[in-house]
């Protein structure tokens, strides 16, 4: 008995799913419906004539298709369609990270209640089997730490900047290559990665986080000079999504961080994605590959369909609501740009000392003018909020040419035993 | 309803499986039996008193345990026990690479015929979820290429040699650390990695290979000087297990190879394992982590048990028998050690030209005596057999101080589109 599949949304990923199904003909998976608005202009010659093209979701719902593949994206109406399909006992496969991050727990419950399954391997790091790897291969560990490069656009921008390019130029390239939207905020400000971190935290750390509770920081404040100073610390800069259980607390954050060059996270280039999972028993496991794009994302969708066709249901690992804090205790990098005059370092040191923060090192490259002089202070492990309080004390100093930039430094850790 | 689990073999991995089951108490998994020879001396305080300890496999078979975890290793009697359990309708989880490499296809068939499941996530790269990742997350791709660092002992030896240590010293360290056996042949000569490559080829390339058909080469012929010359080519040396479909043919080989330093395979250190999977649609995916050791391997076993407890059966992806050839068309590195005299390079060039093999470059480091002078020739892509024929022609040359060493050079490839 085959599963009968209806694809909702025949864009880049949807047509790639159809293409792979037509090419590989996986046993037990039959494509029966393709739904799209103005479907007439979507019709493709290479799709078998047995497939029904439709503009009506109700037609799909009433049909004998027993699995929907939701690739429409966004919360509305995609969420409503997934919900109605599950309530009708149809299983659903989706790549919709926003929907799963916000409503995954509820949709999982609806699926269970109606004997249906909900798969979303394509929602995080498209072509990299992180979600099935966690659910099937690491369920036997107690994962305590997640570190990921979950947004290919940011990784493209930052890895190009590492090679000397300027933010604005690279963003323009990313937009013309189709990696970034006209309004890039979703990517560069961390919202896209944050939704993915919520999904991974649920599966790996068994913690249900509220999306808006996780602090995000933009990568737009990173300048070329930061890569130079990071290099002096044997580091580079990447957008890192990080979650960790420590004691009973759950720490999570998304934003640019200094990453040691000998960490796998520093090796990612271009639009590559990478996920590092730290387990109590198995130590660190790293997954990497193409996180986005039509074909890699379609591979994740088709893999979920094959798993469904083999009669495998969801691996429902129990998760529970967790409060999030962004208070990692980490070393920090602080880049100042100042109008130089004597006494500045003393004022900075005083502000930091007031919060019990110790300076670790101070770097100043030659070759800059007195009016706009960048230099860097690194400090010993402290929380970001303590650092913010310290920096607030000097925020109105007349020698600041621009507000200071503070970044967490991701330190290599011994795997927890 | 819980699955009732009998562990066969209470050694490092077996006791670690029991430990994780007692610590994490995964829902639906109940440990009921532990089998070991002379079981009295194995009995552990921390195992719940409800568990039955036994020296009799027949007692396990007759019991209500419905899943056996085979961690005895070797073909006999482990294979017979797995077979009898499956025939009795019990599912089996095993970390036995030798058994699955040689008899996996048959055991899968027996499992299917008796409504049982056979899982072996622990058989390859222990703590890294490569097998579940392939079965659940990449089933929707057409994998055309596998490259792996599948033997932690070889990787420990070669990554230490890269830092300047001598083979014999590192082997001794590996033995005292418990990474290598007193007789290290299984590891250093490639047999261990070959069994794992057979298992991965079946799952990823859907090809059933006969273990003994895959050519293996030892790492024992690698000397410190080879790392120096490899470095001049921006490469290092790793034991690589490689399989690839090209046209209708299947190429596979295991042995030391030159690996470019910008390849993820060059980044692996110590006993780390790594698997790179190249797919037609999804491009390259890399998995890495701890491939062996009690805890990481136990994580794979417990994960398989949790998958079973969730009612997920095997993902039976169809595979078919395939003939193996080791005839990759690759650049080669050839290291000669000669008693120097004029004309040697001419003789080598002549022998290579006779097989239509073009020299690419020649390297000779200063500082060696005329009696035992090492130098390296690299050649443009050729098959290993053509190179062997060329080298055979000069094998009795009186200027050879030792037989030449030839290594394939793993070149970065564009993902197949």
TrEMBL record, chains A, B:
- Which GO biological process categories is it annotated with? methionine biosynthetic process; threonine biosynthetic process
User: What species does this protein belong to?
Assistant: Paracidobacterium acidisoli
Record flagged with keyword Metal-binding: no
Q: Please list every transmembrane segment annotated in the UniProt record, as residue ranges.
A: none
Q: Which domain of life is it from?
A: Bacteria
Q: What range(s) does the ACT domain occupy?
A: 333-412
- What protein family does this chain belong to? Belongs to the homoserine dehydrogenase family.
Name any one GO molecular function.
homoserine dehydrogenase activity
Q: Which InterPro entries match?
A: ACT-like_dom_sf, ACT_dom, Asp/hSer_DH_NAD-bd, HDH_cat, HDH_CS, NAD(P)-bd_dom_sf
Q: Keyword NADP, does the record have it?
A: yes
Q: Which UniProt keywords apply?
A: Amino-acid biosynthesis, Methionine biosynthesis, NADP, Oxidoreductase, Threonine biosynthesis
Q: In which pathway does it act?
A: Amino-acid biosynthesis; L-methionine biosynthesis via de novo pathway; L-homoserine from L-aspartate: step 3/3; Amino-acid biosynthesis; L-threonine biosynthesis; L-threonine from L-aspartate: step 3/5
Class of the enzyme per the UniProt entry, highest EC level: oxidoreductase
What protein name applies here?
Homoserine dehydrogenase
Q: Which Pfam families match?
A: ACT, Homoserine_dh, NAD_binding_3
Reactions the enzyme catalyzes: L-homoserine + NADP(+) = L-aspartate 4-semialdehyde + NADPH + H(+)
Tell me which EC number(s) this protein carries.
1.1.1.3
């Amino acid at each position: 008995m085959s599963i009968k599949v209806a694809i909702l949304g025949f864009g880049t990923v949807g047509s790639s799913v159809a293409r792979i199904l037509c090419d590989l003909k996986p046993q037990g998976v039959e494509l029966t419906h393709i739904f799209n608005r103005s479907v007439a202009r979507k019709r493709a010659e290479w799709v078998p004539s047995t497939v029904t093209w439709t503009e009506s979701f109700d037609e799909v719902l009433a049909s004998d298709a027993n699995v929907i593949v939701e690739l429409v994206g966004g919360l509305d109406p995609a969420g409503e369609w997934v919900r109605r399909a599950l309530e009708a006992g149809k299983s659903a496969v989706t790549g919709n990270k926003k929907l799963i991050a916000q409503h995954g727990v509820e949709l999982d419950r609806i699926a269970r209640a109606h004997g249906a399954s909900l798969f979303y391997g394509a929602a995080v790091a498209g072509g990299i089997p992180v979600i099935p790897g966690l659910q099937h291969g690491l369920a036997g560990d107690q994962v305590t730490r997640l570190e990921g490069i979950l947004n290919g656009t940011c990784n493209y921008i930052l890895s190009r900047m590492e090679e000397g390019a300027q933010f604005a130029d690279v963003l323009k390239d990313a937009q013309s290559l189709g990696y970034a939207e006209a309004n890039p905020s979703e990517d560069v400000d961390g919202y896209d990665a944050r939704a993915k971190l919520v999904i991974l935290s649920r599966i790996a750390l068994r913690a249900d986080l509220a999306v808006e509770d996780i602090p995000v920081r933009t990568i737009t404040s990173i300048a070329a000079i930061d890569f130079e100073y990071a290099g002096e610390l044997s580091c580079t800069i990447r957008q890192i999504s990080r979650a960790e259980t420590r004691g009973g607390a759950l720490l999570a954050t998304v934003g640019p961080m200094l990453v040691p060059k000998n960490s796998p996270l520093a090796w990612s280039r271009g639009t590559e994605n990478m996920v590092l999972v730290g387990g109590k028993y198995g130590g660190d496991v790293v997954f990497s590959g193409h996180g986005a794009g039509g074909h890699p994302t379609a591979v994740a969708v088709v893999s979920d369909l094959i798993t469904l066709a083999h009669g495998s249901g969801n691996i429902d690992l129990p998760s529970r609501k967790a409060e999030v804090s962004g208070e990692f205790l980490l070393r920090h990098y602080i880049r100042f740009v100042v109008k130089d005059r004597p006494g500045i370092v003393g004022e900075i040191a005083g502000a930091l000392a007031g919060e019990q923060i110790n300076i670790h090192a101070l770097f100043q490259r030659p070759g800059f003018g007195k009016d706009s002089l960048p230099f860097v202070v690194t400090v010993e492990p402290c929380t970001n909020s303590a650092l913010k309080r310290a920096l607030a004390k000097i925020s109105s100093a007349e020698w600041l040419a621009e507000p200071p930039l503070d970044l967490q430094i991701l330190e290599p850790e011994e795997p927890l035993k």
